[in-house]
């Protein structure tokens, strides 16, 4: 089988950062939606209940369903991920961030549109290789300027309650004579 010579580097990763959440987060989503619904029901237009509950459904599905694994490719023409191709001449700069324990690569397109491409980086080896390739084509920003949407997303992520990791308590180790006692 022939290897495509236009592919510079490729890696497989989840489509989006994902962290399995407990039922506590879902209760938080429902409680927040109920509170907003009650406020809007008594003081505002009832038609605004539809977007609130549709956003709740969106949060529920993104929390419950893990993302599929996709192949990301850096080619001589641009970047390809999940069937979307972005040409080098349409891209402006890139930066790395961290979300849900994953490193994410954010690539921003040229003005006036400023499209953002988010790619999950699975490990440091891939991150270093991608960094060295992208610096040849795009501008790297260590401290990117956050858009209003990024600030709002960070605000709501900070509102989420932290989940406590369940740790197993060590049990008593049994000696050989204690494990098999004759009856």
Key structural traits:
183 residues, alpha+beta, PH-domain like, 2 domains, four-stranded antiparallel sheet, four-stranded mixed sheet, 5 helices, disordered C terminus
Textual characterization of the structure:
- There is one protein chain.
- This protein is α+β, with helices and mostly antiparallel strands and 183 residues long.
- The chain is built from five helices and eight strands, in the order E-H-H-E-E-E-E-E-E-H-E-H-H.
- Strands 1-2-3-4 form a four-stranded antiparallel sheet, with helices on one face. Strands 7-6-5-8 form a four-stranded mixed sheet, covered by helices on one side.
- Helix 1 (23-43) packs antiparallel against helix 2 (49-64).
- The longest helix is centred in the N-terminal third of the chain and has 21 residues, at 23-43.
